[in-house]
Specification:
Shape of chain A: globular
Radius of gyration of chain A: 16 Å
Number of strands of chain A: 6
Helix content of chain B: 25-40%
Number of strands of chain B: 17
CATH superfamily of one domain in chain B: D-Amino Acid Oxidase, subunit A, domain 2
Order of helices and strands of chain B: EHEEHHEHEHEHEEEEHEEEEHEEEH
Largest sheet of chain A: 6 strands, mixed
Oligomer: heterodimer
CATH architecture of one domain in chain B: 2-Layer Sandwich
Helix content of chain A: 25-40%
Distance between the termini of chain A: 14 Å
């Protein structure tokens, strides 16, 4: 693969609700996603997902999110408010050529939304949904400095895609994109 | 009182790799001084001490890496004998490994036997019933079967490090604390100052500073892109003789149950990329002990004696760096990730050969300094 393209898209009006509902039915996945990546989901967003879970008693059938195979509403990437991050994501994912080729992914459409709790990926439409609060704080280092390691190594932002949660229908297990699509993240 | 020391080689790093290097340099009649840093979080004393190429190698890695791991295992007995370390004093013993095909994994491990056949690893597939015959303390509720591997070994890394440190000291090498504080040139030689105020002037320097090698490298103007990967370990006591092999649990951070001495069980571990604190956490310890108790139900009664954590040095391609750097006066030996204990003796031998301008007897091209490496990625914590 010689190129990797990222496009930007606006969210559709009902997509935040759809992703929150999907998250409520995969609360265990969502909580594990955040904890194991040192991601601090804003409390109101997490509380909203937990309330939805509790109201449905955790057992309501997961609606298939309309976002899974919907056509994106494109916006020129350079005009997207997160243009710098998208450029970094494109640059970093290009370094994983072998892995991405295995997963048959050569382009992505990225939509940033303020009220969602995690990064999500819809394989059918190759759409990546990123939380606005995460986009604003994506670290360029592996971790924050500590007394033991005061100079943390630089890090790629590729994990925003590889470790996004795959939007699957209720009967299909979810998990991080790299795992579900059989992509090795460290090719 | 600060010291001024003139040696052939300064070794930065007083862990397993650094000490093994100092030992092998001594064998070549090269004088060495070892500069150590903080013992907190070092991998050398954190590891369980499994010497298992078969469990640690993955087929996506280059074959040269398996060959290096295998040489590491093969060299251990000769190494111990050459330096007069009695196997029992460093906890070295050959043992079988039981690589469990855990039910918590959706995919079976059985396909691993194909590459094990290719590499001539002595192994056999065991059904769950056969596992129960050879390891009656394990519950078949936790696994579908196992690969039993013969001809590998364990060592006690803490005992080994202590023995090597004593050997190096007794043979007259200086072991200096305080960490590396500064680097300069002195008429073509390298001048190193320590945090304790000592000065070492050396013709050559070996950087073997584990997870801190990137920082040490920067002091020499080198780019050594390793990151710290934390692992948490728990030591328990229970009845002796419950296990007939090392039990390897390839899930999460790839844990293990190692009987270090009769009734002493070392259990781990995690792979954590984002939490550089030398501590133990509820989630990891809970998961590690939960898995232990599902595999060995009787372990629920074992007493927790101690827990700790350490940081493995990892490159983004998960291969070590064993090579001369751009500055020909410097040799780098780091990035051993999960295989630092296994590769301790052979790395010392290889590095000493490089320092002595001798062919190392093994292709090290895959492990060269300066090979293309991507920046690190924020992997999720595994446990």
């Amino acid at each position: 693969m010689k190129s990797f393209t990222i496009r930007a898209a606006r969210p559709h009006a009902d997509e935040t609700t759809a992703l929150l509902d999907w998250s409520a039915t995969r609360l265990d996945e969502l909580e594990r996603w955040a904890i194991r990546r040192q991601v601090r989901v804003p409390r109101p967003i997490l509380a909203d997902v937990r309330r939805r879970y509790a109201e449905h008693d955790g057992g309501a059938p997961a609606p298939v999110p309309p976002v899974r195979d919907r056509e994106p509403d494109p916006v020129p990437a350079a005009q997207a408010p997160e243009a710098a991050l998208l450029a970094a994501l494109e640059r970093d994912l290009l370094m994983y050529a072998a892995s991405l080729a295995e997963g048959r992914v050569d382009d992505l459409t990225v939509t940033t939304m303020p009220g969602i709790p995690a990064a999500f990926y819809a394989p059918e439409s190759r759409r990546l949904f990123l939380p606005g609060w995460l986009v604003e704080t994506v670290p360029d280092r592996l971790f924050a400095p500590t007394a033991l390691f005061p100079e943390p190594p630089p890090a790629t932002v590729s994990w925003l895609f590889f470790q996004s949660l795959v939007l699957t229908p209720p009967s299909v297990p979810s998990g991080p994109t790299a795992h579900v699509l059989g992509i090795r993240e460290s090719d | 009182m600060s010291r001024n020391i003139r040696v052939d080689v300064a070794v930065v790093g007083d862990g397993l790799i650094g000490m093994s290097t100092a030992l092998h340099l001594h064998r070549r009649y090269l004088s060495a001084a070892v500069i150590g840093g903080t013992p907190q979080g070092r991998a050398s004393t954190a590891a369980a001490g499994m010497l298992t190429p078969a469990c640690e190698y993955d087929p996506w890695m280059p074959q040269e890496f398996y060959e290096l791991l295998h040489k590491g295992l093969d060299y251990y007995p000769e190494f111990l004998s050459a330096f007069g370390f009695a196997p029992e004093t460093v906890g070295y013993r050959p043992t079988d490994f039981t690589l469990l095909d855990l039910v918590e994994r959706p995919d079976s491990l059985r396909s691993r036997t194909e590459w094990m056949d290719k590499y001539g690893i002595d192994h056999r597939w065991l059904s769950a019933a056969e596992v129960c015959e050879v390891e009656p303390q394990l519950s078949p509720r936790a696994f579908r079967g196992a690969i039993r591997i013969t001809g590998e070994a364990v060592v006690n890394p803490r005992a080994l490090l202590q023995a090597m440190t004593e050997w190096v000291t007794e043979e007259g090498s200086q072991v200096l604390g305080g960490g590396l504080a500064g680097v300069g040139d002195e008429r073509g030689r390298l001048r190193l100052t320590t945090g304790g105020g000592d000065t070492v002037v050396a013709d050559q320097v070996v950087i073997a500073a584990g997870a801190w090698s990137d920082r040490v490298g920067r002091a020499f103007g080198l780019d050594i892109p390793v990151c710290p990967v934390k692992g948490q370990i728990v030591r328990l006591s229970g009845p002796p003789g419950l296990l007939n092999s090392v039990v390897f649990m390839p899930s999460g951070g790839c844990g293990s149950i190692v009987s270090r001495s009769p009734g002493e069980y070392i259990v781990g571990t995690s792979e954590e990329y984002l939490r550089p604190e030398a501590d133990n956490t509820a989630g990891v310890v809970g998961a590690v002990l939960g898995r232990l108790c599902s595999v060995v139900p009787e372990a629920a009664e074992w007493r927790i004696e101690e827990m700790w954590s350490g940081f493995r040095p990892m490159t983004s391609d998960e291969l070590p760096v064993i090579s001369r750097a751009d500055d020909p006066r410097i040799v780098v030996a780091t990035g051993h990730h999960r295989n630092g204990v296994l590769l301790t003796p052979v790395t010392g031998r290889l590095v000493a050969a490089l320092v002595d301008d001798e062919a190392p007897g093994l292709s090290l091209d895959r492990f060269r300094y300066g090979r293309p490496l991507r920046p690190h990625t924020r992997f999720a914590t595994k446990y």
